[in-house]
Amino acid sequence: MVSLSPERIEQLRQSGIRLDREGRLWHEGQEVTHARFQTALRRWLDRLPDGRSILRLDEVRYAYVDVEDAHLLVKSLVWDGERATLALNDGSSEELAYETLEQGSDSAMYCTVRQGKLTARFLTHAYYQLAEHIEPAADEAGESFVLNAAGARYTIAPRASSAG
């Protein structure tokens, strides 16, 4: 069995894959267009403890991926009473992590998914479904908003950083 140096392993982990703001995947300047391969890549998205975005096959096999904005997109949101379920562009769905909502400088809405590991940006349709439960906060500046959901009020924070 051939043993690779840590430097060579790091070199091999440079995938040349990039995820743009619109959720499109690119490899060395060419868009990845195969639908099932796109889904697989999105399902492999993960983060290392140091915050670097990766495509993970297992605990030791992964490759780096450049993420321009958010890891995933929220395609739709369904309310069941006071609880919201997100449909993500990797084919999965999960309950919204209400306390993680953030608003970007361009008014885009973000949250974390997969137990806080990844960021997701709401597409327009999902944003409008979320907005049904958003109202202005009662503060002096009048610039903040709250989400009424799951029996509580969650302040929507300004977004501090990108996906990484």
List keywords for this structure.
elongated, 164 residues, six-stranded mixed β-sheet, 3 helices, alpha+beta, 42% strand, nine-stranded mixed β-sheet
Q: Work out the strand percent.
A: 35-45%
The strands making up the biggest β-sheet line up spatially as 9-8-7-12-11-10-15-14-13
Mean pLDDT, as a whole number?
Answer: 92
The string of secondary-structure elements, in order, is HEEEHEEEEEEEEEHEEE
Query: How can the largest sheet be summarized?
Result: 9 strands, mixed
Ends apart, CA distance between termini: 34 Å
- Look at the helices and sheets and give the structural class: alpha+beta
Using only C-alpha atoms, the radius of gyration works out to 18 Å
Low-confidence stretches: none
The number of distinct helices, counting runs of at least 4 residues, comes to 3
Shape call: elongated
In short:
With 164 residues, the protein is α+β, with helices and mostly antiparallel strands. The protein has 3 helices and 15 strands. It is elongated, with a radius of gyration of 18 Å.
How would you portray this structure in words?
It is a single chain. This protein is α+β, with helices and mostly antiparallel strands. It has 3 helices and 15 strands. Strands 9-8-7-12-11-10-15-14-13 form a 9-stranded mixed sheet. Strand 7 and strand 8 form a beta hairpin. The model has no long low-confidence stretch (mean pLDDT about 90).
